[in-house]
Amino acid sequence: MKNNELHFKQIEWWIVTVLFTIIILTNVLNFGNYNFNNHHFSARYFSNIVIPALLYFSFFIFHTKLLPQYLETRSGGHFYFYSILLLVFGWIVSSILGFMTNWYSNPFNPQYFGPLALYAAYLVFVYLFNQSLKPPRLQDFTIYNLIRLVTIYIFIALFLVQGGKFIWDGISMFFVVFVPGLTALVLYNYFFIYLNRKNRNSQLAWRMYYLLIGLIVLTTAIFALTARHDGLSIGISGLVVLFVILVIVLPLSNFFFNKFDGYVHQINTLSVQVDQGIANLDFLKSQINPHFLFNALNTLYGTALLENSEKTAEGIQKLGDMMRFMLHENNQDKIQLDREKEYLMNYVDLQMLRLKDQSQVEVIFHKSEDAFTGLIAPMLLIPFIENAFKHGISMQQKSWVKISLRCLAGSVHLDVNNSIHRSNEQDPEKPNSGIGLSNVKQRLKLLYPKRHDLIIRENDMEYFVHLSIQLT
Predict the structure, then answer these.
(1) Strand 335-336 relative to strand 375-376: parallel, antiparallel, unpaired?
(2) Fewer CB within 10 Å, N or C, the chain?
(3) What is the rounded distance in angstroms from the CA atom of residue 466 to the CA atom of residue 13?
């Protein structure tokens, strides 16, 4: 309701359909109150069926056919022709019925033209309201939808009051008195009793419950005492209403509230699971860049040819450790924090091995000597470091990558600062440059809600990241 407009065309159609079905059926079954030996009484019975049927037919043709087609095509020729034809047809039929019933002596039957005037006023109000307050003029659709719903109810109530000759008083009483009263009662129960109990504020909830009972009893007593002849019956009716509210309305509304909360919880749970699945899928796609692996292997190959030394074995060992980490521990929900730290160290060491002869490149990695204890979701830290080397290193310009990794009691803190060298449009990696960071942001939000602090800042020269995660 907040983000989207309700389907008011369907809402209006269903409300009018249900209302006119009740009116027509009630009038059909009400034949016992008419003397069919009298011409006027039989005409009135017939009129009370035909007039609402004619009104509904006019509404159906205009509201569901002519008006939507006009709003879609803005072609006024057919719209005006058929609208006038529909109006003339209704005018002729309603005038004949008005004269037959001896209710009206003029050709404009108010039973027909009164509801048409209300309908026209409703359309004008909706048009002006949409022009003035429809989002984005309002912040969201909540207020807009509520006002539209209240407007529909007000015009329905005015129609019931205006069309009194062919509408049974019980129907008007139901829509004008019972529906808003029941709605107010359910809203009172939800906001003042149910939510307080849900939030474990039972004392306030019971106070609101007893206040409702007191208001009903007080209102019944006032009407009973001020009535001249029906005080006893009013008092009995009030007790019956109180019994119905306490035994039926409140428990039934609480049942639906609980069901609704259950459905909302299921939807939220499924949404989190879907988001987690999407994040995991993106995570698998955005694991360590295969181009880096090829570069590392080429570096190790070149080192082996030139030196045939321990550095080659060391590089191969670090790369092997990284591959084992990717194959075995990367798919677990949580891993030891020291294993994540070891993976970062291997990654940085391999990068430094590749960049060791580049005098214009500075790489600094500060690691706290404290023990890295605790569990962490894998691969939450490496995207920031990988991003720093990917976009912060240039073989032709002065470049730097500075990393600080600290582990405190129950938390881990990572700071990364690197130079920036913008990639050109021909860079094959440019379309994928943001996948890793966007994925890790989503995973942090899902796995550590309100337990992490991520700050990213950049300017034309450098890029800075600070990440803190509360592990426990």
Answers:
(1) antiparallel
(2) C
(3) 56
